[in-house]
Amino acid sequence: MNTKAILELKDISMYFPGIKALDSVDFSIRPGEVHALIGENGAGKSTLVKIITGVYKQTAGQVLLNGEETNFKSALDAQSAGITAIHQEASMFPELSVTENIFMGHHVKKGASGKGPVDWKTMRQRTRELLDDIELDISPDALVKSLGVAQRHMVEIAKALSIDAQIVIMDEPTSALTLREVEDLYKIIRRLRDEGKAIIFISHKFEEIFDICDTYTVFRDGQLIGDGNVSDATISSIINMMVGRSLDLLYPKGESTIGDVVLEVENLNRTGYFKNISFNLHKGEILGFFGLIGAGRTEVMRVLFGIDKASSGEVRLNGKPVSFTKPKKAMKAGIAYIPEDRHEQGTILDMSIADNITLPNVDELSHFGILDEKAERSLAEDFAKKIEIKSAGLNMKTSTLSGGNQQKVVLAKWLSTGPEILILDEPTKGIDVGTKARVHKIVSDMAAEGKAIILVSSELPEVLGMSDRIVVMHEGFVTSVFEREEADPDKVMLAAIAQPGDESA
Amino acid sequence: MKTNLNMKKRLESRESVLIGLILLFMAVMTITMPRFIHPSNLANILKDSSILIIVSLGQFLVILTGGIDLSVGSNIAFSGMAASLINQNNPELSPWIILVIGMAIGLGLGMINGSLVAFGKVPAIIATLGTMSVFRGFTFVISKGQWVTAHEMTDPFMNLPHGNFLGVPNLIWFAIFVVAAFFYFMRYTRSGREIYSIGGNKSAAVLVGVSEKKVQFLIFSISGLVSGMAGVLWAARYAAAVNEMATGFELQTVAACVLGGVSVAGGSGSVAGVLLGALFMGLLNNSMTMIRNMAFFQMLLQGLIVISAMTFNVVMERRQDKMLLNRRLA
Amino acid sequence: GSDKAAADDGQYKMVLLVKSLGNGFFEACDDGAQQAVAELGNMEVVYMGPSQSTAEGQIEIIETLIAQKVDAIAISANDRDALIPVTKKAMAAGIKVISWDSGINIGGRIIDLAPSNAEFIGRQQYQLIAELTGNKGQIGILSATSQATNQNEWIKWMYEEAKKPEYADMEIVEVVYGDDASDKSYREAVGLFSKYPDLAGIISPTTIGVLAGAKAIEDEGLQGKVQLTGLGLPSEMQHYIEDGTCVQMALWNPVDLGYTATYICEALITGKITGAEGEMIPAGRMGEIPVGADGSAVMGAPFVFNKSNVAKFAAIF
Amino acid sequence: MSDNLVRQDRLIDEFSFKKRISRLFSSWEFILFLTLVGIFILFSFISPYFMDYFNLMNASLSFAEKSILALSMIFVILSGDIDISVASILALSSFAMGNASVKGAGSGTLVIIGLATGLAAGIVNGFLVTKIKIPSIAVTLATLSIFRGISQAILRDNAYTHYPLKFAYFGQGYIGNSVIPFEFVFFLVLAVLMGFILHKTTYGRKLYAIGNSASASRFSGINVDRIRFINFAVNGLFAGIAAVLLTSRIGSTRPNIATGWELEAITLVVLGGVAITGGKGNIFGVVIASLLVGYLKFGMALVNLSAKVMVITTGALLITAVLVPMLLEIAKAKQKLRSQRSELKLERKAS
Ligand SMILES: Nc1ncnc2c1ncn2[C@@H]1O[C@H](COP(=O)(O)OP(=O)(O)OP(=O)(O)O)[C@@H](O)[C@H]1O
Ligand SMILES: Nc1ncnc2c1ncn2[C@@H]1O[C@H](COP(=O)(O)OP(=O)(O)OP(=O)(O)O)[C@@H](O)[C@H]1O
Ligand SMILES: [Mg+2]
Ligand SMILES: [Mg+2]
Question: Does residue A494 contact residue A469 with C-beta atoms inside 8 Å?
Fold first, then answer.
């Protein structure tokens, strides 16, 4: 590998209001290389990808392609320069066909000059080929809204491959894929590498990095921490770079006594989302829920909190059957739910911190519907102090806070309702290590106080470290339930990807 | 199995539902009023719907991106008035040149909307609510409050919509031409497809290099362009350019789009659907004049039909979604 | 009091308030008003109207006219009742209020200047169409909005006239409304043709309606088969009268109407008249107009336009 | 663009007095207020009739009803919906009252009928929006035809013109022996009431939450659809109130009454600084905007400007009102980026 770098980033910085997402970062990649970008949530990986693909314009620094400085005005420019990417967030057009989703932005046109009409026949045919290539058995004319999560991800991959690119970027392409699909993806990546293409591969899973990547770069908090050849690295050396301290500090599961059953779920169904879900939750217990993205965990929690309706099944609270038609009813029964999407569901970014904290409590704090601003104020102050929200004042807009502090606002908001059952959905996604530890501490303390806790997480170490028991889901089914002692990473992961032989079907 | 599903899908698609509704409606009309089915009446319906079709297609593009263009009626008035004044003052000028000028004026007004929305970031509904007043106000200014009527217009000008080609009135040809152009544009050009992408998922569209600003500017420009065309045709067809022309027309075009299955949230809808929606509106308008003493029920009936069609659409959509869900975890 | 002194500049200020701006008929009325201004020398007339023809819009304007303390308001009303409260207020503030063209009900004005007697207009319209159809056949009426008070009054008298024995072979089949919009009027006219294949004639007592009706007849090639008459401006109908689409139609002279309204206002302001029954209003070249019961004043018979005279009048209004 | 004044009061402990003052002065309401003052000054120079207590009071009759429509429209728009059927509801209510009046109903009964009809129509809108789940713009586009259509179908070319004498008070009466119209006082009372609900009650708080993020509100236990439903119902009720006032003021009902008022009400709301996308804005802005537009029109009419000029002016005012703050914001963001860049350069040089 002595060829010259095809892509070089020099001294790149990217600032968002209040955040340095990237801080003087260098990066380079050569043809025929698979390069891993590694880093915790929020380290700046996706931001780097967006700069390379022309979606963002860097605040400072240069991007060199084949030695020449680029100045992409949009993703289109990057595409025509031979750069393609699978972005992390879903970027599909649900109302449009698979073919169109693949070719949006670079429709094939008839005529030699490429000025003719859009050539549907050719595009459909190429889609067919691409789908065959990645062994995806769907019609090119299918509307994307009719596809499942994994199928959508595969279409995203096909989309990246539809461009004859020199550089292919994959931002967490495997997060929703089964083992077999991951194997297919490996095959494709190897083929691309052999064709002399440069591949940037982002993943949180170390085995994947060691399986497929040649080189790596580690980011932490927007800064480059280290890089090198994968063959020279070990998992622990990389983790050290990522986290900057040893792992044991995290996941401080405290002692708590497991009490009576508070919540029983029996054969719960929601058509199209999950089937025959059964489990129990005890007082003082932390019940982990693990699975791949799209496994249906969130959907189950939404039903428990009264957001969605179950199509059948029973939920019992302290032995009594309940059915929450509205979140308010679930709240009255002592359930609190911290949703996974902080921006869309957890907080109201344009409202003040105080108003966010008191929002679920306004009815209780008011007299005949009239706000009691004093009571609100003191409640907000109490919990802001307790959860240690760092802000310029509780009347600041929530949007001015960092991600971690925003998550603390969500925690404060729900803890202030004094819940008996606390459901947390990906509570540490995209927040810094310090806050993460703080969240874990709070959860542990709650359990110690005898509250029942459900912790949904896609981070295996977190689930393993925090839970008393672990429920594992795959494509809408519960595949296994592990006691803390018997849960080892391999077994849990296998259950999550539903290897043949288990009882899910 | 697969073909079966496709068949089912096709049968349930909004367009076929609309065709069914239209046929049903026509059947009922024919039974109660045999003259309805007379070719001359059908031709009339087509003529009456032509301008609505043309403008609704422009409105369609705007709604497709989740916006709305409330200024089309005023745009028609302004460009129609301007074209008529030009015709009045330059009788020797070819009507085709006047048509082009009228379209250019409409385009210009559309570009004002487009700039406000794309570059000024003014919400579409506000921008066009404002220009709706402004354009109509200026119609009055350029006409000084006067009308331009038949004897001030030249025959070639009035013949623009009224003349025949191959036995089909020009007005219908104009509509056919615009429909064909839109069909081609929306299906076979990148820009057309990009409009769908912005309405479907804005952030995803940006990720694949679609420029939101460009698309927004484009759709309002097109909406203005077709409104300008409609303005000229309108003035020439009724041989009268008055300040109040096409008042309230914007709501007709929105209704045609909604009837045609265009989602007001953006992202879905088709040229065929809009065509059928506008035809249905034209049909409604025409039948109201066909039935004795219907004048007073027209508004009520129109509203009821629009709301029923929308309810029907929503229910169908929900059923379709449910079908998809049922298949998902089978 | 009627002996109110003229404003500082020696001018009395009067407002000619029309149904809406941008209507050729009213523009012609304004021309007449300005002629009267030139003759009288002590008047100033401002032409005003709402942007859409609604009673609410006119009321808003009248409120500001009360504030301005103008001397007189002459209104062509969009609603014969809705304006009464506000015009009463205006009169209480010492403003002389008259209505013209489209009247305000008793109590809401001092004098109502009708362009012509409603009964006469209605009957004449019917006679005009009967002449054209040879006292035979089905007649449709294409009106303006269903709320237009003067239209409805005239139509009532058309039905009265139709009861006469000489019209035994004629009938009014339907009244349709074009809402004073050219496209709707046009569609309604075409609707009449298809509903009544034997339609003999259309009466459209409104300027936009008669224009749209003529265009529809021409487009459908029905000249000679469907006759048309109505109330229209010669300048706008010249084309159709000359090509025979509309052989004859009627209208009073809007110039004279605006002219007379101005004279009446001047007479009221200066106290020449009070609006009592039996008084004679001096109206310049129009001679003297008597005040009838309930303050009604009538100008005279509408003038009938046809090929022979339309060109001459088209130059005027 | 506009910040919540009430909310700002609570910042006392956190912001210095100076900062508070500077925020107040750059707030949208303040700019509106300055414009209003400017209009008063301008017209009092141009027209001798403008600065006249009686005239100013009386002029309020021309905008009080539309402003009342705007008051409840704030709620609808704040929660992210829109209602373009209000003027038709007004017509329907007026029709119902006229119909009852002909049958001999007294003033009290008429008011009840007017309000009930408005409320019922609002409930129909609310039902279609929240239960059938059709977007509000589409629903009210259809009901705009239906509500007016009903009165047109029944009333036809007739008018109801006979209302009880006492009924005239609501639209034509003055408070005691003063020259203050009842309508104007009633508008102010309603404004205070709506302001209280908006800024001092849980309902108002929830409204803002919904407007900012309906889904986050749902996840916070707010019954989003119920609040939207109530908004539409209240909006209908207010259209009923406006119907009582207008009908009483003009003493006549025709199916085309108040045509086009929906757009005027929406214009007032938006001009008052309420974001059409919801979640932002307050009652003061809308009240000031109502006075602003009302007196601007009054002033322009006093100097005999053509109605068409007024139409152009309000249209342009609306666009500028939204455009200017947007452009300022864009410029500010650019400025910030530039300063960030130069800061970065300095940092680099230093290191
Ligand atoms: N458009 C944006 N506006 C403001 N802040 C942003 C934006 N995009 C990213 N950030 C912030 O920049 C930082 C880096 O985010 P980025 O998405 O690059 O992280 P990442 O390494 O891809 O994380 P993950 O593993 O969660 O995908 C985060 O703090 C994020 O909140
Ligand atoms: N087959 C499917 N087709 C389309 N959308 C799906 C499908 N399955 C799940 N989804 C959607 O994908 C998203 C992820 O599903 P869900 O949240 O239930 O999974 P999860 O186990 O909580 O995963 P995660 O929270 O990690 O994304 C949800 O919004 C869900 O509605
Ligand atoms: Mg990322
Ligand atoms: Mg989830």
Answer: no
